[in-house]
Specification:
Blueprint (H helix, E strand, L loop, with lengths): L13 H6 L22 E2 L7 E3 L11 H13 L2 E5 L5 H15 L3 H5 L10 E3 L14 E8 L17 H26 L6 H5 L7 E9 L11 E4 L5 E6 L6 E5 L2 E4 L7 E5 L1 H6 L9 E3 L7 E9 L26 H4 L1 H6 L5 H7 L2
Helix pairs in contact: 2-5, 3-5
Bound molecules: N-oxalylglycine (OGA) and nickel (II) ion (NI).
The site of nickel (II) ion (NI) has 4 residues, from loops.
Length: about 350
């Protein structure tokens, strides 16, 4: 894929722009009016995404009907929910966030040593997509492949500073992976599939893919004109987002409005990605979300993407294909699937919807 070899124009770090003290953002970041947050319906004071207490799941997955029911309803109605008592240590959540904040606070020349390319996206990045002249988002990020071991990002892609970063990130990955494996069982049961169906479809416990995207959204002098991250659905299976409960910004589409997510202290935000929409033959749906820019505070979030093993073709479960509900998607590997977002950048739900026409 030649177009994915390099960025189409010089990369500008949003952090550098923000720290240069400009009061007007460059045109490259100004969204068309239809995407500007100030001109759209936002629902802030209505009920947000569901909050689900997972404590009953930790011992016996089969025994906790009410929790499974709550997850199932959240996946059907929202595609998003928050979990508390999820088994990931709060202390570790704080530490991994602070460690990555320390990384982004280093001088630019230190971070530039990890500058990424669209070939694998691993490393320090400032755009998604390679379309020349595209309108860009107000955020930088760091991307790593964590699992399976065979595709784990090479040593040279991992920041060497702060020295604790790798160990803490690995510890966090292990705990989140356990949570994901539990949720995969819950989702399988919710769909009426065998309890291990989804995990097996993802390549088994050690075979599933895990990538980490640490998002860094610098302060923005004109947050009404741009977005920290444009509307998109996540291409993978399921996302576990660790976001700051003090600085909001994430919004989820609900009908024609955007609902602001207010994470509870210690909570993790879970959302369904396109691969689970495909596997469930559209019973569960990946939902569009976006991130607002903020003039007063910078914001950090860690998105851990739990994905199918990238070389396994994945299609709708045959149990969910009936004469009344024929298969909506043809099987495809995740490697094939994610080329689209890597080339075109975040574009709402256009990718998964486009599959249906075929
Ligand atoms: C993402 C994402 C949301 C956030 O990285 O895919 O949607 O709040 N992040 O940073
Ligand atoms: Ni996302």
């Amino acid at each position: 894929m030649d177009s994915l070899q390099d960025w189409p124009e010089p990369v500008v770090r949003v952090q550098s722009l923000a720290e240069s003290g400009l009061s007007v953002i460059p045109n490259r970041y100004i969204k068309p009016p239809s995407d500007q947050p100030s001109l759209q319906t936002s629902k802030n004071n209505q009920q947000g995404i569901p909050v689900i207490d997972l404590s009953s799941l930790m011992d016996d997955v089969a025994g906790c009907r009410a929790t499974i029911q709550a997850v199932s309803a959240a996946c059907r109605e929202w595609g998003f929910f928050q979990v508390v008592n999820h088994g990931v240590s709060m202390e570790l959540m704080e530490r991994v966030k602070e460690t990555w904040r320390t990384f982004f606070r280093q001088p630019m020349n230190v971070k530039q040593a990890y500058a990424n390319s669209p070939k694998t996206y691993e490393g320090y990045g400032s755009r998604l997509g390679v379309e020349k002249g595209a309108i860009l988002d107000w955020g930088d990020y760091y991307f790593l492949n964590l699992m399976p071991a065979s595709v784990r990002s090479h040593e040279r892609h991992w920041p060497s500073q702060p020295p604790s970063l790798r160990g803490i990130t690995n510890e966090y990955e292990k705990e989140v992976a356990k949570l994901c494996q539990t949720l995969m069982k819950v989702l399988s049961i919710s769909l009426g599939l065998d309890v291990d169906y989804m995990q097996n479809a993802f390549g088994g416990a050690g075979g599933a893919g895990e990538c980490l995207r640490v998002n860094y959204y610098p302060k923005c002098p004109q947050p009404d004109l741009t977005l920290g991250l444009s509307a998109h659905s996540d291409p993978g299976g399921m996302t576990v987002l660790l976001a700051d409960h003090r600085v909001g910004g994430l919004q989820v589409r609900k009908g024609d409005a955007w609902v602001t997510v207010q994470p509870l202290p210690g909570a993790l935000v879970i959302n369904i990605g396109d691969q689970i929409q495909v596997l469930s033959n559209s019973v569960f749906r990946s939902v569009e979300h976006r991130v607002l820019a903020n003039s007063a505070y910078e914001r950090i979030s860690l998105a851990l993407f739990y994905n199918p093993r990238s070389d396994l073709p994945l299609g709708p479960a045959k149990e969910l294909v009936t004469p009344e509900r024929p298969s909506l998607y043809r099987p495809m590997t995740f490697d094939e699937y994610r080329v689209y977002i890597r080339k075109n950048g975040p574009r709402g739900k256009t990718q998964v919807e486009s599959l249906k026409a075929q």
